[in-house]
Each structure stands twice: as structure tokens, then as C-alpha cells.
Design a protein that fits this description.
Number of helices of chain B: 5
Distance between the termini of chain A: 59 Å
Strand content of chain B: under 5%
Largest sheet of chain A: none
Strand content of chain A: under 5%
Number of strands of chain B: 0
Largest interface: A-B, 89 and 83 residues
Number of helices of chain A: 12
Oligomer: heterodimer
Structural class of chain A: mainly alpha
Helix content of chain A: over 70%
Order of helices and strands of chain A: HHHHHHHHHHHH
Structural class of chain B: mainly alpha
Radius of gyration of chain A: 25 Å
Distance between the termini of chain B: 59 Å
Helix content of chain B: 40-55%
Chain lengths: 338, 143
Amino acid sequence: MTLSEFKSIYYMEWIHRLWGRFVGLSFVLPAAYFVATRKVSTPMMLRLGGIAGLIGFQGFLGWWMVKSGLKDDLFAPGSQPRVSQYRLTAHLGAAFVCYTAMLWNGLAILRSNRLLADPESATKTLATLRDPGLKVFRRSVAGLAVLVFCTAMSGGLVAGLDAGLIYNEFPKMGLGLAPPKSELFSDFYSHREDSSDIWWRNALENPSLVQLDHRILATTTFSSVMALWAYSYTPTMRKLLPRMARKGVHGVVGFVFLQVTLGISTLIYLVPVPLASAHQAGSLALLTWVMVLGSRVWNPSRTAKLIARTLSQMSVSPVGRGRQSVMTHSNTAFKSSI
Amino acid sequence: MAATSQFFPLLRRVAPRLTREFFSCRQCPRKSQIPRLTPWVQSNVLPRASCRKGLHTTATRRVAVAQDASSVSTRSADLTPVAPTTRASRFPEVSHRIVAYWLLGSAASVFGIVVFGGLTRLTESGYVLPRYALTDLIVNTLA
């Protein structure tokens, strides 16, 4: 390796760690400010603390992960540092959880503010969402979020094992849709004499099975999104599903198509860096949009209670307070320090 | 109006007469200056307001530009009653929107670092910096 090559990979790692510290600081300092100036609700404050802890833990995971790649004798001929795919997936998983937490809480605050600004129409909106006919849809979105997350984690395992470099074809894998069972559940990977650990050892360490698992999860995710899309066009759903939720479904469909396209092309072209990176970004984008859809269909119970309380207090207040409907507010949001 | 959030307290300290003149309740009937009653305002600011015309004490200066309840109102004219406490000692029911924007910005930053981490992994750049100076320092100090 030349010095300039080394410099380029050094910068990659250094920027990544520096960015991590930036994420931590840019989270903790404003969080402390918001808590001190009482701009957050108490549950939100606890959540911010949780996210801050998660960011710190993520830093530890990164260190622990790199350490796992340096334990072997690196000077032995032919050796190559390799991080454990478990720690890599843990590092990815914690990052995804952190991202989802930040995204969700941001969306939730905006939603609560929007709903509480107009309690009467908010009550109507929430009442339509609480219709029992929407229960299946709401639960499906929750299940979809979990499924997308699991698919992304299996992708992390694929990346950790470089399992994208084998079976570079789709939909077949070798001679059939899957490699032979003896290859998938091979004794080679079990550490115990009686091979009782053969299932999970192969599922987590055999590149063939890991890639197959990722393919299965990905096609399941794709089919689930298509099913949800079709379901949103049934007569009941046409009536019950709010417009914004319908648009959310369309967005999820778009992202899943993008992600599947990126995934298959990454595999077929033997994992070129730009495609692989785009595939990873696409997974996070898909998860984002499922969360956005969720924020449009799930019931915000705490906000609903606040709305109900606001409305009940409005109804008991004296009416002679000049209730002219004044909607001519200026468009500038009221800033708290005024 | 929108930019007053940062310089307004400073301005008030520097030019109290100016702020009293131009940012007090007497301006309320002018509808173009009425700020939007966001839920954060409702639960934090207005309950503590007694926005009298011309009144300008430290307790009410936060609401100096809030609406005068007797002259105008909004759809939610009456507010979630909050126990009258000193200002900034109580957590609001709903977080301020700026917290949301900052959280979404942080999320975008995390998105970027995830993508960058993937690139680090793909370029196999993750193995430089094996000795971490801070850990070395800590371990050596403890030893």
C-alpha cells in the first residue's frame, strides 16, 4: 500500500470517528440547553437522555468492534484484519435504533404541536384514525417496520461476512432457488461436537445461509409492502384511510422498489462500492418512510389526552371572551424567548 | 418579528424604552403582529400572562407580544390551565417545535454517518488507528 492510499483510508476512518463525536456533542449540548430552558416535556427529556446514552454506547461499540478485528496475529503471512460480523451488525443496529428514535421523536413533536394548535379538528382526525376498521392496517405498518429493521440487520450480517460476493445471481442461487441443505447447514461451522449449535452457527456464520436469509427477508418485505399497497385499495380502506396515509403508502412502495433494485444490482455487479453504499442508504430511507407512514396512522395516545383536556377546559370557560375567530396570525412562529 | 428570539432579550436590556414602545401589548390589536398560538405557547406562556395594555413587568415580559385576551382570541381561546408558577420552572406538556427540528437535523446527521460508516467498511478503512490515544491514556493512568 502506498502512503497516499493509506492516507485516504486513514481519512475515512478518522472522519467517521470525528463525525461520531460531532453527533454526540451536537446532541448532548442542545439537549442540555433544552432541558435547562424547559422546552421539552418530561417524557421527552427522558427519551433524550436515552438517546444520548445510546450515542455513547455506539461509540463504545465502534471501539469494541475494531478491537475484535485486531486480536489475531496480523503479521502472519496472508492474514487480514477482520471485524466480527456480530459486532458490526450490533454497531449498525444501534445506529439504526438511534436514527429511528431521533426521527420518531422529531415527527411526534411536530405532530403533537400541529394537533394541539387546533384541538377541534384534531379530535375529528384522531377519531377517524381510531376507527376499528383501521386496526389491521395500523398493526401491519408496525409489523412492516419491524420487518424492515430485521432485513437491514441481516444485511449487516451479509456485509460483515462479505456474503455478497458469492452467488451473484438472482433469483436463483446456484442450481436452484437456494443452495443445497448440506451447504446451508454445514457441520463446518458448528463448534460443538454434537452439532447442537448447527442452526444458529450457520445462520450467523455461514455466508451462504446468511445471504439466503437476507434474500428471504428482503422478498418478504417486498411482498408485504405490495400486499399493504393492494390492501389500501380495498373498498373499506378507500373509505377509512386518510389521504396522508395513502400518500405514505405510495412513498413506502417507491422506496421498496428502489431498495430491491439496488440490492439485486449490487449483488449482480459483485458489490461495487457506490451501489452497495446506495443500498445501505436505501434501507435507512425505507425505514424512514415506514416511520413517516406510522406517524400518520398510529394513535398518539398522550397527545389525544391533552387534546381532550384542552377541549373540555375550553367548553367550561366563560364564553364572553371575545371569541371572534381570528385567524390572521402572522406566519412567524412564536419564539419562546420573547 | 421572527428574528427577535435571539436579540430581543438583549435589545430589551440595551434599549428598554424602545422595546416597551414597539413590542408591548399595545401593539396587540394590530393583527399582523400577532404571533401564532402554538401549543407550546399555550401551555407555557399564556397561562402566566396577564397581558394588560402597557403593563410591562418582568413576569409578563415573555408575553409582551402575546395576544390580549380581551380583544382577540383564537379557536382555542381558553388554554390548558397551568398552575401559576415562576417562569421556566415547569416542564411543558408538549415540547417546543425547535426541539423537533433539531432532532430531525440530528437524525439527518446520523443518516450521513451511517452511510459514511458503510463506505468505511466497504473501503476496508476500518483498521487504521488501532491504538486509541484516549484509551491508552486512561489505561496507563489507571495502571
